[in-house]
Amino acid sequence: MEQSILTSSINFVANFFTEGGVFMWVILVVWGLGLAVAFERFVRLCGWDTDGPSFMNELQRFILSNDIQGAIRVCSGSKAALPRVLKSGLKRASSGGEQIQNAFDASALEVVPKVELRLNYLQLVANISTLFGLLGTIQGLIIAFSTVASADPAQKAEILAKGIAVAMNTTFAGLVAAITIMIAHSFLSAKAEKIVSEIDEFSVKLMDLLGTKKISDQD
Description:
mainly alpha
């Protein structure tokens, strides 16, 4: 029973794509590329994300204990974006505030583009999927109406209905592809924005902490 349902489902999908014409396969290829980019970005951003407040609290304990090297080791033990940026500032903890800020800025300029890499491609894929869906629909309608023009009058309604139904396949496929990619883009953009925001926030907090620590040491 389950096997027959699976076979019927596979046949339905195969017929759905075959009846939709060449643009169905174009949409499928574009959709596949979008999903591949989304998956790669998901894996990468999950590896670069970290719990910023908890990580900052851990660094603070080392810094207040005058163990800058310990704080650097904590940053070195993580592959996330935030520790990578903070590590560059900690290496210049003994320098002036301007040099620490320059280290943060240089590291952020290197890391942030990698965090946001290829996210704009997902918007492009969503737009292209929708447009190919509409293009396939227009092509299907043109074929349907041209066929009806030379068909038997008794069969015109049936041929036209079938042609329109087939034309709608590309619209459906294009919209499904666009919606899924747009959802992925929204999720990944939010994750990337969180990583970038934490880099900005905790870089400032770490710089303030290092400055406060220097003042207290001088006192």
